[in-house]
Amino acid sequence: MPAKPLEGIRILDLSRILAGPWCTQQLADLGAEVIKIERPEKGDDTRHWGPPWLKNSEEAAYYLSCNRGKKSVTLDIASQEGQETLIALLEHCDVLVENFKVGGLKKYGLDAASLRQQFPQLIYCSITGFGQDGPYAQRAGYDFMIQAMGGVMSLTGLPDDQPGGGPVKIGVAFADVFTGMYASNAILAALFQRQQTGEGTHIDLSLLDVQVGVLANQGLNYLTSGQVPQRLGNAHPNIVPYQAFATQDGHMILAVGNDGQFQRFCQEAGCPELAEDPRFSSNRSRVANRQELIDLLLPLLKSRKTQEWLDALEPLGVPSGPINNLEEVFADPQVQHRGMAITRPHPQAGEVSLIGNPIRFDGENLNAATAPPLLGEHTQAVLSELLGKGQKTSD
Q1: pLDDT tier at 342, thresholds 50, 70, 90
Q2: Which of 1, 43, 199, 347 could cross-link 375 (Cys pair, CB 3.0–4.6 Å)?
Q3: Which residue has the higher pLDDT, 125 or 393?
Q4: In the annotation, is 176 catalytic?
Q5: Is the peptide bond before 241 cis (omega within 30 degrees of 0)?
Q6: 176, 209, 332, 362: which one is catalytic?
Q7: What whole-number distance in Å separates Cα of residue 170 and Cα of residue 343?
């Protein structure tokens, strides 16, 4: 394919763990050159967050999930030499991404105010738990606690009065991943703005802000009604039937989104009278009479095997699907056809398996060509190319 959309953009990445690296991996996939600055000897904490580990390597799968397409340079930014090298690198960079605690880089002269005075075109993206100001600004923030504080755990899990009820976190780092995506989106907007104004900007992203921001319809349910949403397990607060159901041999998802779909489902299920019943004929009435309807549907759904239901409902345009584990996900023919599992050469393992970027431009997937780097793999090459240094400054 032709040049990727961000080719020619260079990013200095001082972030670690997940939100920042998720952001910069996205930008690397889009064609930016991402220079990942890491601590000598230790590197990004997630390199050590295993098992599992990549074969013949000390790289943890966690690290591999969010560092594709980057160059690793080791620098001790606590040293004068490291700070000077970092500032010299910024002469050649468009964007800096960092997720240090508020004020953590000021003592090194690497805070936004100091660097943007020196580099007025620099786009400086700060990712923290709670933002650059406010009563919690100095607190550390981690995804699990942010999911709890930001309300999503009050929505996830079975109701308290059911067996196993209570708050449950989402099974991936939801707040971190969303923050990474918001950060990459903001950086793209800042790059466009700089084209118009010639000026950089300081992007301030908070995990808590993002978690609140993605409460979406549930957040508006509260703001509109004043009623606090409660946990519904796999059910939907605004649509019925829209949940998991037990079948003869397992479980399936039935996601009826409108009255026409409900009518077609009832016809196939042998209960057309339910679609005509005033209690269930509209989504509004189905939500009002949720439990009565679900009690009627439970034995119907359990009368057939999952695949039998899926085969019957798919031609009718009634949304339904299986509940796959990850082995089944990556074996799914649609997932395989779309190229969501990719491999890249790796200097220790020979090859590494990765999850592909879902974005396509003109039918082409946007995936960086290189594997997540070894610690310090590109130190000498980057410093030589950009700064004319023949030897790396730290090991």
Answers
A1: very high
A2: 43
A3: 125
A4: yes
A5: yes
A6: 176
A7: 27
